[in-house]
Amino acid sequence: MRNYAAPVRERAKQLVLSGLDRALVARGLDGAGVALARAEVIDGGRAALRAARGRRRVTGALEVVVTRPGHAELRPRPVVLAGPGEVTVELEASAISSGTERAQWLRLPTAQPVLPAVPGYAGAGRVLAVGGDVEGLAGGDRVAVLRARHASAVTVPAAWAVPVPAGVAVGEAALAYLAVIAGYGLRRAGPLAGLPLCVLGAGPIGALARRLAALQAPSEVTVVTRSGRGGARALADGTAGIGAAVVIEATGDPAAVAPAVAAARDGGTVVLLGSPRGVTPDAALGELQRRGIRLVGAHISALATEARRQGGDPFAGLARTYLEGIASGRVAAADLAGEAVDPREIVRFYRRLARGEAGAAHLEWEAIPRGERLGLGLRPRRRPAVTRAVPPPLPAGRPLRFAVIGCGDIGLANARAIAAAGNAEAVLCHDAVPALAEAAAEAAGAEAVPELEAALDARRVDAAFLSVPHDLHASLVARCAAAGLHVVVEKPLAVDLAGAEEAVAAAAAAGVTLSTCFSFRYYDAVRAARALADAGALGAFSGATVAFHADKPPSYWMGGFSGRAASDWRASRARAGGGVLIMNLTHYVDLIRHLTGTEPEWVAGTARTQPGAEVEDAIALSVGFTGGAVATISGSSSTRGAPPNRVELWGEDGTVRLEPTAEAYTERAVSGLPAGRWTPLPVEGVDETRRAFVEAFAAAVARGAEPDVTPADGLAVQRFVDAAYRAVASGDAVTLEGVAG
Amino acid sequence: MTGADAVLAALETDAAEVVGAGALADALRARLRSPASPPAAIVDTTGDPAAIADALERVDDLGTVVLAGPAPDGPVALDLYATVHVRGLTLIGVAV
């Protein structure tokens, strides 16, 4: 009779899975994203089924998931609490198998697990729940878990949880499974008392084998390593003549089998303890035969076979030998436990491991607050908390009174921002075109004045906000300063570096506060990015990409975007100082400096100027920063269709993307930003950024403090602009240090 | 001690499969019981790397393969990971 059930079941399974995949693709997932989401849906379903069948409770835990090659992250997963014969353990540490996990991270030919995959093999922690029929374990007991992936909690067969005696550190306890492997290798070798022993390899397995072997008092121990450091014999010096009765091959290198055999005395035993993945090029069969040597395999799966055939619990027995050795001081393993790694920084650790900069280590789950690694409702936070830089209230007295000088498009926006600020007031508005001043005054609740001199009346205003053509900035700053007014200049600080230096000097001489309106700093996303950068989420600044795309219509060059103020100054090199670089990209140059704390050192580039035009239409720059970071900064005023801008900055440990979407990624443990995944940053409108800038400036003036955007900031950006234009003109890279106004 | 004596001394069982033909193989077959399937022990009397690799594949987990054929002169490449290591086999050389 044919069995129809199995094929039908398989077909049904395939239908469900393909339907699930289609649903996930429809949600915008692809490739690794589908595989991960599918695995999590299946995992969650299985957990729910197990919980329902056994009437068991479920909690949440975090686990390390390698989602795609070169990427890992902490993902929440349900953990069904212990049922019959089981125990649930809240892991405090999970041991890192440096060799295996490095091979898997690099996806070496013999170590390519199907992704997504959860690495790890053992850990230690405290019992969280015990199945009803389990004896000898109770909640709160410290246990070594012989099989556990990298997770903050696991439910395992009770036989895998071995009590840890007092005096054993959690990192040492997490090595119990490695000790079982090493101990099994020794057991396969037979008695060692009084016999010469040789161990090839000084990795964790080799070191544990040597230290556990010492409990049996061999007559002598020879250690052979590739480097020959630390008193070991160098492999390159040869192993013939060592004459060991027992040789433990723990390098895992297939090429080390022949040297291991050579190290054995006639009639001796060679134990293959390290995993010699791949074909052994020389199995030394002739040596084995001529000298009567035994070659014995000692993989942990062979121990499992032994246990199945013979009964008993050899795993726990070997683990107890190790743990009691540690507790009694006869075995040392603190160095093998290695560094404690915050699980949120697993990718950073794997990268170090891949580069050979890390060795023995374990994940320290207690580094994560308990509420974030255990319990129901573990879900990644959608957005990190943002600490808004709300300026402190001004001292008792009136708000900072502004004169708005220049009331074109940006002047109008600035007038509105001043009016909206909680600690500032737009009092006077002036423009060479009276109608523009009147419109701005109406919008901001101010008075329009036709004469500039009247607008700079220090009896009526405390500060001036300049939104005028660039070539007027320096002279107007000087006039305002001379009138005793603090000054805000719509970026850039001046038409060129010489003008910027004049402006800074004039303000300094008059003792007034000068700032440049780099309003992009006040986007919530930028504030959040700055907070994350300050917290170390990005690490050392490595690079940035800025691609600015505008599609400015011909009318822009005759009157701005709105056409309210007819003027062709934007098309004049003498009046504007340049095109898209000075007009738009200066915001981003300031942002990179602001977020990274580095300065541009050199710049090279090229630009495109349309026939008959004076200012560049498009520019592409390569920029080097202090510390070695590099950036590409490009912009175009005539990008048809105006595709979204792209702004990304990255460091050794993380990346922040500000446009087209605002999100961040880190491999460091930073509060409020889950490691290993992209997390959205908050977004706020442009009007709010100008209001925030004004409030911060007014607060700084009230406190007698430096403004957020200092005169030095304005100068630095101006110096960059001058250097960039020189680089474009010369075709050579220009060092900023040599650029003078 | 004959070659067969040396092999029997190395084996920890009196049941093993013998691979090869010749006097040594005949002597061993005469003194060894047939093993269960898969065999817990295989004695190779050929010295042929292919036969040795085949024996390592067929022997039971935790089993033993005895090398009792002519010793190869040069290096012989074998997948010791999947056989000797993972399955806990023992490979014993016996000079005959």
In quaternary terms, these chains amount to heterodimer
User: Kindly state the mean pLDDT of chain B as a whole number?
Assistant: 94
Find the biggest chain interface: A-B, 36 and 31 residues
| Biggest sheet record of chain B | 4 strands, parallel
Helical stretch count of chain A? Answer: 24
Number of helices of chain B: 4
Number of strands of chain B: 4
Number of strands of chain A: 30
Give the helix/strand class of chain B.
Answer: alpha/beta
Helix and strand element order of chain B: HEHEHEHE
Enumerate the strands of the largest sheet of chain B in spatial order, edge to edge or round the barrel.
Answer: 1-2-3-4
Characterize the overall form of chain B: globular
Point out poorly predicted stretches of chain B: none
**Helicity of chain B, as a percent range:** 25-40%
The class by helix and strand makeup of chain A works out as: alpha/beta
Percent range for β-strand residues of chain B: 15-25%
Q: What Rg of chain B is obtained from the alpha carbons, in whole angstroms?
A: 12 Å
Mean pLDDT of chain A: 90
What amount of the residues of chain A lies in strands?
15-25%
Q: What is the helical fraction of chain A, as a range of percent?
A: 25-40%
What is the global morphology of chain A? elongated
Q: How do the strands and helices of this protein lay out in sequence?
A:
The complex is a heterodimer of chains A (741) and B (96).
Chain A lengths: L4 H22 L4 H24 L3 E11 L2 E10 L5 E10 L2 H9 L16 E8 L11 E4 L7 E5 L3 E3 L6 H4 L2 H14 L6 E5 L3 H10 L6 E6 L7 E2 L9 E6 L7 H7 E9 L12 H7 L2 E4 L2 H11 L3 H15 L5 H4 L1 E3 L4 H9 L6 E4 L5 H4 L26 E6 L3 H12 L3 E7 L3 H11 L2 E2 L3 H4 L7 E4 L6 H10 L3 E5 L6 H14 L3 E4 L6 H11 L6 E9 L6 H4 L13 H4 L3 H17 L3 E9 L9 E8 L4 E7 L9 E6 L2 E6 L3 E4 L12 E2 L5 H18 L7 H20 L3 E2 L6
Parallel strand pairs in A: 8-9, 8-11, 9-10, 11-12, 12-13, 14-15, 16-17, 16-19, 17-18, 19-20, 20-21, 22-25
Antiparallel strand pairs in A: 1-2, 3-4, 3-6, 3-15, 4-5, 5-7, 22-26, 23-24, 23-30, 24-25, 26-27, 27-28, 28-29
Chain B lengths: L2 H8 L6 E3 L3 H9 L9 E4 L4 H10 L5 E4 L13 H5 L4 E4 L3
Parallel strand pairs in B: 1-2, 2-3, 3-4
Helix pairs in contact in B: 1-2
